[in-house]
UniProtKB/TrEMBL annotation, chain A:
Keyword Cytoplasm carried by entry: yes
MF GO annotations: RNA binding
One GO BP annotation of this record: RNA processing
PANTHER family according to UniProt: 3'-5' EXORIBONUCLEASE CSL4-RELATED, EXOSOME COMPLEX COMPONENT CSL4
Keywords: Cytoplasm, Exosome
Pfam family, one: EXOSC1
Protein location: Nucleus, Nucleolus
GO cellular component, one term: nuclear exosome (RNase complex)
Transmembrane segments: none
Lineage: Eukaryota, Fungi, Dikarya, Basidiomycota, Agaricomycotina
Protein name stated in the entry: Exosome complex component CSL4 C-terminal domain-containing protein
Annotated source species: Kwoniella dejecticola CBS 10117
TrEMBL record, chain B:
Domain of life of the native organism: Eukaryota
Cell compartments where the protein resides: Cytoplasm; Nucleus
Main location: cytoplasm
Protein name (database record): Exoribonuclease phosphorolytic domain-containing protein
GO CC entries: cytoplasmic exosome (RNase complex); nuclear exosome (RNase complex); nucleolus
Keywords for the protein's UniProt record, in alphabetical order: Cytoplasm, Exosome, Nucleus, RNA-binding, rRNA processing
Keyword RNA-binding: yes
Signal peptide: none
InterPro entries named in the record: ExoRNase_PH_dom1, ExoRNase_PH_dom2_sf, PNPase/RNase_PH_dom_sf, Ribosomal_Su5_D2-typ_SF, RNase_PH
This protein's record includes keyword Membrane: no
GO biological process: nuclear mRNA surveillance; poly(A)-dependent snoRNA 3'-end processing; rRNA catabolic process; rRNA processing; U4 snRNA 3'-end processing
Pfam families in UniProt: RNase_PH
TrEMBL record, chain C:
InterPro entries assigned: ExoRNase_PH_dom1, ExoRNase_PH_dom2_sf, Exosome_comp_Rrp42_subfam, PNPase/RNase_PH_dom_sf, Ribosomal_Su5_D2-typ_SF, Rrp43
Organism name: Kwoniella dejecticola CBS 10117
Listed SUPFAM superfamilies: Ribonuclease PH domain 2-like (SSF55666), Ribosomal protein S5 domain 2-like (SSF54211)
Predominant cellular place of this UniProt entry's protein: cytoplasm
Residue stretches of biased makeup (Low complexity): 1-14
A GO MF term: mRNA 3'-UTR AU-rich region binding
Keywords associated with the record: Cytoplasm, Exosome, Nucleus, RNA-binding, rRNA processing
Higher taxonomy: Eukaryota, Fungi, Dikarya, Basidiomycota, Agaricomycotina
Protein name: Ribosomal RNA-processing protein 43
Length: 187, 283, 304
C-alpha cells in the first residue's frame, strides 16, 4: 500500500468514504464543521455507516483486558492491568489498576460467591472493562463464560489446567482448586 | 550563593567561569552568532525531522533546526494518580543537557525550561484530544542537546512534540507547528530569525529602554506563533517588544505562511515514520 | 510445562527471531502478551535455543557506532549507539581557582544522566539511584586509570585551572548504559579541543586564544564490558533493558590498553551451574578482552 493513502491528524477523510448520509465517527477520527477529519496517523476505512482511521493500535470502547490479581478482600479483587485487547499496555512506572466487585464475578448464583473460591493472588485474569470506575481503579467484570482466570499456579507451585467452569487441576499432583475459570478458546 | 550541596551528582567547584577570549583583531571575522545565509527573509528555516528513533518511548521525534537539536519522547496514556479527571492531563518537561547552551547550564539553577514548558503546553493542549483519555496522563519530555536562541528552541520544540505525539498514535485535532517572526529596526519582517538578528533586536530594545530613539522608527518585536496549519487555526501567540497593530497582523500572516512550510516537512516525516511502523503494510 | 512447548526459532542474528509459541494454558495470548506476562519463561525459551529475544546469538554483542563533534555548544562531544541504547556526551571546559590543598590540580566532573525521556521506568527530577551509581563508577574509573590527570589542567599554579565537565545524557535506554556511557566519554574526551589559556597576573584574569587550540593530554583509555547471569545458567554479554531485570547477577569489567583491569564489579551471586564464580569471572574477562579490542578499533576510526 502506498503512503498516499495514509492520513495525518487534521486531514479530511476522502470524499469516497464520507459520501452522504454522513457516516458516524469511529475511532481515529472526529467531526468538525460537517467534515470528518483524521485524529491519528493511519488508514481510513468505512464499515457500513461508521468510518474510522486505523493506526498503530486498534482500540475498542470496552476493551478486554488481561490483569494480574494483586490484592483480595472478601468484597472485591484488586488487579493490575497488563494487556488490552491482546496487546501489552505500554510499559510505565505506574500501572493501571482495576477492581472486580463480588457481584461482577459471575452471571449466576451471585449470592453464593466466595472471593477465595474465584481468585487467588497472582492469578492471570481476563476481564471486560465495565466503566472508568473510581479515582484509582477501573471497574472490571468477569461475568461471561470466556472471562475469568486464564493462568494460575497451584498451592504446590505448579501450573493449573482448567477442568470445569469452577475448578482447575494441578498438572503434576492432580489436586483440584476452585477458581472462576475462563472458558478456553476453541472448546 | 548558598546552594545546597547536591549529593546526587559528582561534586564540582563552587564557582567556575566559561573561558574569556582575547579581543578580536581589526578585520577579523567573528565566528560567533549564526547569520542568515541562503534563505530569504520570509523563508522558514530548513529542518531535519525524524520520528520513532527512541525505541523505549511510545512515540518520539528528533529535530535539527539551525543551531538547535532536540530529542522528544512521548509516554502515554499512562495512569494518573487520583484525583479523578474526566480529561487527560498533559505533562510536558523541557530539559537542557548541561552542554547544550553557552555558557554551560548547571543543573538546578536554570529557570528557563519552566517558561518554555509552559508556553509549549499552552500551544499543544488545543492540538490534543485530551477528552479521549480520562484519568490518564500524557507525558512529553524534550531534551535539548544543542541550542542557540530560546525562540528557536520553542518553535522547533513545538514541531518535534507534534511529531512525537502523532507517532505515539495519540488522537489529535491536527498537527501543531511553531514559527517565530521578528520585526527589526528597519521594519523588515524576518521569519525564523538567526541568533545575530535576535541580538540586534535585543540591543535595540535596550537602547530604547535608555530613552534613546524612543518614539522613532517602526518599533521592533518578536512573535511566536503556534498553529495548526491544516485547520487554519492559531493555538498560541506570544509577543515581546512593541510594534504597530498592522505590523503585528502582518507578522502573524508571515508566521502562518512559514508554518505551512514546516507542516509539509512534518507531514513527510510522519508518512515515512508510518511506513516504518508498518501502518498500511498490513490489513 | 516447558516440555510441552514447541518453540521454533531459526532466524539468524540479522532478523529478529520469531517469538516462541505462547503458553498452552493461555492460547489467546499473542507472543507480545506472553513476553509481558511471563518474561522469565520467555527469555529462557530463547536462550535454550541459543538466541536472545532481540535476535542476536547467545554470546553476541550489539552493533556499536560512534559519531563525534556534532554538538557545537560543547568543546568536545560524541554520540554512541549500542544496539538501541543511545548516549550523548558533551564536554565543557570552564576556569576556576584550584583548592589551597591542591594548587596544581584541575577538576574533572563526570556525570551520567538517565532522564525520564529515555525510558518509561525513569521519573523526571534529580538523578535516580541507577544514574548516581553509574556516575560514581565513571568517576572511580577516570581517577583510577588517570584518563585525564588533574595535573594536566593547570593554567597558572594556585591561580587558575581548567574544570572539565563531562556530561553524559541517555536518549534511549535499552540496557547496558554503563558500557555505552564509558565509550561515549572516551570518544568525547578524544574529540575535545581547549583554547590556549594565559593567566594575567595584573588583572587576575585568564584570557583564551581564539586561534590556538590543543587536545587534552589523555592517560590510559579504559573501556567497559558488562554481563548478566540468567538463572545461574547463562552468562549474557551486553544485556538489553528487557533482559536486565531478569538477571540477578551483573558483572562489569573495564580494561585499559594493556588489558589491565581498571574496574571490576560483580553484584549478586557469582558462578553458574557447574562453574565457580572465579571461573565465570575469568570467562567474562576473556570475552571482555576480545570485545574491548573491537571497541578500540571503532573508537580509533571515529576520531580520525
Amino acid at each position: 500500500m502506498s503512503s498516499s493513502t495514509i492520513l495525518l491528524p487534521g486531514q479530511p477523510l476522502p470524499s469516497s468514504l464520507t459520501a452522504p448520509p454522513l457516516p458516524a465517527c469511529g475511532s481515529g477520527c472526529y467531526e468538525s464543521n460537517g467534515r470528518i477529519l483524521a485524529s491519528i496517523v493511519g488508514i481510513p476505512r468505512r464499515d457500513g455507516s461508521v468510518v474510522s482511521v486505523i493506526g498503530r493500535e486498534e482500540s475498542g470502547n470496552t476493551p478486554d483486558v488481561g490483569s494480574v490479581v494483586s490484592r483480595l478482600t472478601p468484597q472485591q479483587a484488586h488487579l493490575t492491568l497488563t494487556t488490552s485487547n491482546d496487546r501489552p499496555l505500554p510499559e510505565t512506572s505506574e500501572e493501571f489498576q482495576g477492581v472486580i466487585r463480588i457481584s461482577d464475578i459471575r452471571l449466576t448464583e451471585r449470592d453464593k460467591i466466595k472471593m477465595g473460591e474465584c481468585f487467588r493472588l497472582g492469578d492471570l485474569v481476563k476481564a471486560k472493562v465495565l466503566s472508568l470506575g473510581d479515582a484509582r481503579s477501573y471497574y472490571l467484570s468477569t461475568a461471561a463464560n470466556e472471562l475469568g482466570v486464564m493462568y494460575a499456579v497451584s498451592e504446590a507451585g505448579n501450573p493449573l489446567l482448567p477442568v470445569s467452569y469452577q475448578e482447575m487441576e494441578d498438572e503434576l499432583t492432580g489436586t483440584r482448586e476452585k477458581r472462576k475459570v475462563a472458558k478456553p478458546e476453541g472448546i | 550563593m548558598a546552594t545546597a550541596f547536591d549529593r546526587r551528582r559528582i561534586p564540582a567547584p563552587e564557582i567556575s567561569i566559561p573561558p574569556i577570549y582575547e579581543p578580536l583583531l581589526d578585520g577579523e571575522a567573528e565566528a560567533g552568532p549564526s547569520k542568515r545565509v541562503d534563505r530569504a527573509n520570509d523563508e522558514a528555516r530548513p529542518i531535519f525531522l525524524k520520528t520513532g528513533l527512541i525505541s523505549q518511548a511510545n512515540g518520539s521525534g528528533y529535530i535539527e533546526s539551525g543551531g538547535v537539536k532536540i530529542a522528544c519522547s512521548v509516554y502515554g496514556p499512562r495512569p494518573k494518580a487520583p484525583p479523578y479527571t474526566p480529561q487527560g492531563t498533559l505533562n510536558l518537561e523541557v530539559k537542557f543537557a548541561p552542554f547544550a547552551s553557552d555558557p554551560r547550564g548547571a543543573p538546578l539553577r536554570d529557570t528557563e525550561p519552566i517558561h518554555l514548558s509552559q508556553l509549549l503546553t499552552q500551544s499543544l493542549i488545543p492540538a490534543i484530544q485530551l477528552d479521549q483519555f480520562p484519568k490518564s496522563s500524557i507525558d512529553i519530555y524534550l531534551l535539548i542537546l544543542e541550542s542557540d536562541t530560546p525562540s528557536n528552541v520553542l518553535s522547533a520544540g513545538l514541531t518535534v512534540s507534534s511529531a512525537a505525539i502523532a507517532d505515539a498514535g495519540i488522537a489529535m485535532n491536527g498537527l501543531g507547528t511553531g514559527s517565530v517572526v521578528l520585526t527589526d529596526q528597519n521594519g523588515e519582517i524576518l521569519v525564523d530569525p538567526e541568533e545575530s538578528e535576535e541580538i540586534a533586536l535585543q540591543s535595540q530594545a535596550q537602547a530604547q529602554g535608555q530613552g534613546q530613539g524612543q518614539g522613532q522608527g517602526n518599533g521592533a518585536g518578536k512573535l511566536l506563533v503556534g498553529a495548526l496549519p491544516a485547520l487554519g487555526k492559531v493555538t498560541n501567540l506570544y509577543m515581546e517588544g512593541e510594534v504597530e497593530v498592522d505590523q503585528a497582523i502582518q507578522m502573524i500572516e508571515k508566521a502562518i505562511a512559514a508554518s505551512r512550510d514546516t507542516h509539509t516537512v512534518l507531514a513527510q516525516s510522519l508518512l515515512e515514520g508510518a511506513l516504518e511502523r508498518g501502518i498500511g503494510g498490513e490489513a | 510445562m516447558a516440555a510441552t512447548m514447541a518453540a521454533q526459532s531459526t532466524a539468524g542474528p540479522s532478523a529478529p527471531a520469531p517469538a516462541p509459541a505462547p503458553a498452552n494454558s493461555a492460547p489467546a495470548a499473542s507472543a507480545e502478551v506472553f513476553k509481558k506476562l511471563h518474561p522469565s519463561q520467555y527469555l529462557s525459551r530463547f536462550l535454550n535455543k541459543g538466541y536472545r529475544p532481540d535476535g542476536r546469538k547467545l554470546k553476541a554483542w550489539r552493533d556499536v557506532s560512534i559519531n563525534v563533534g556534532s554538538v557545537s555548544t560543547a568543546h568536545g562531544s560524541s554520540l554512541v549507539r549500542m544496539g538501541d541504547t543511545t548516549m550523548v556526551c558533551g564536554i565543557k571546559a570552564e576556569i576556576a581557582e584550584p583548592t589551597a590543598q591542591a594548587p596544581n590540580e584541575g577538576y574533572v566532573v563526570p556525570n551520567i544522566d538517565l532522564p525520564a525521556l529515555c525510558s518509561p521506568n525513569f521519573k523526571p527530577g534529580p538523578p535516580g539511584d541507577e544514574a548516581q551509581t553509574y556516575s560514581n563508577w565513571l568517576n572511580d574509573l577516570l581517577v583510577s586509570s588517570s584518563t585525564l590527570p588533574p595535573s594536566s589542567l593547570v593554567i597558572a599554579s594556585g591561580k587558575a585551572v581548567w574544570v572539565i565537565y563531562i556530561d553524559v545524557v541517555c536518549i534511549n535506554y535499552d540496557g547496558n548504559a554503563f558500557d555505552a556511557a564509558v565509550l561515549a566519554v572516551m570518544a568525547a574526551l578524544k574529540n575535545t579541543r581547549l583554547p590556549k589559556a594565559k593567566y594575567d597576573e595584573e588583572t587576575a584574569r585568564t584570557i583564551c586564544s581564539r586561534t590556538e587550540i590543543y587536545p587534552l593530554q589523555l592517560g590510559s583509555i579504559p573501556l567497559s564490558c558488562s554481563f548478566g547471569i540468567f538463572d545461574s545458567t547463562h552468562l549474557l554479554p551486553d544485556p538489553s533493558s528487557y533482559e536486565s531485570p531478569l538477571l540477578p547477577t551483573t558483572i562489569s569489567i573495564a580494561l585499559d590498553e594493556d588489558n589491565n583491569a581498571c574496574l571490576i564489579r560483580q553484584e549478586g551471586l557469582g558462578g553458574t551451574q557447574g562453574k565457580t564464580g572465579e571461573r565465570v569471572l575469568g570467562e567474562a574477562w576473556t570475552i571482555a578482552e576480545g570485545r574491548i579490542k573491537e571497541l578500540r578499533e571503532i573508537l580509533e576510526e571515529s576520531s580520525i
